[in-house]
Amino acid sequence: xxxxxxxxxxALLDEAVILCRSAGASTLKWFTSAELVVDEKGxxxxxxxxDREAERLVRRHLAENHPEDTVLGEEEDDVTGRSGLxxxxxxxxxxxxxxxxxxxxxxxxxxxDEHGPAVGVIDLPALGHxxxxxxxxxxxxxxxxxxxxxxxxxxxxxxxxxxFAHWDDTHLLAVKQDGFQLRTWGDGYGYALxxxxxxxxxxxxxxxxxxxxxxxxxxxxxxGRFTGTDGxxxxxxxxxxxxxxxxxxxxxxxxxxxxxxxxxxxxxxSSA
Length: 272
Prior knowledge:
5-stranded mixed beta sheet, 8 helices
């Protein structure tokens, strides 16, 4: 029997929550501001002054308080440390929503240690909510324990995605035909909905490391499951090709069968 991994230091979790909330709060002065300028990065994705300022806030804190830790972020170069702790920051997850005045964007922060995912935080600044988890300490929604839903599958199960543009058409049709209710409550907000029991699944076929880094520990501590679209454990390392499937656990294999019809056996039942 596999020994449980040691719980993360609660003080480290508390620090991460405060830090992520501070980063999120810094974005609000730019949210819906007429002075917000949207630039385009080399990969064609948008970036704003709000993204840059929020990430710099996190990096300044870590440079002062955790100078030996590794820091990976979306907007600035990696910092390589030697402590064994890695912080992964996405200052604004859902920049497209942010620039259009949609309040469902989030600030994300994760910590990975020698045992794997240790801390995950999803802050929703414009909504005033935060979801966080620490390995062995539970998952929380604004300080209250958070749990995934107990709905076993369609027709009552809701599956969301950041968008459907990156989906293979056959996979999207398979999910639709299987009876899932489809929505596009995307980015970190969608994963927060799964962790708090509002919906049953969230799928992103293509994402970056910082988009999903908080999710493995958040979903695990909420009683759910998080994998890549192929069912494998996500590799939280720079440059790794990433995807995300979060669920309440009860519908997980059902979703994976829809996303991987070529590997499903003919005897697989459509029921979870």
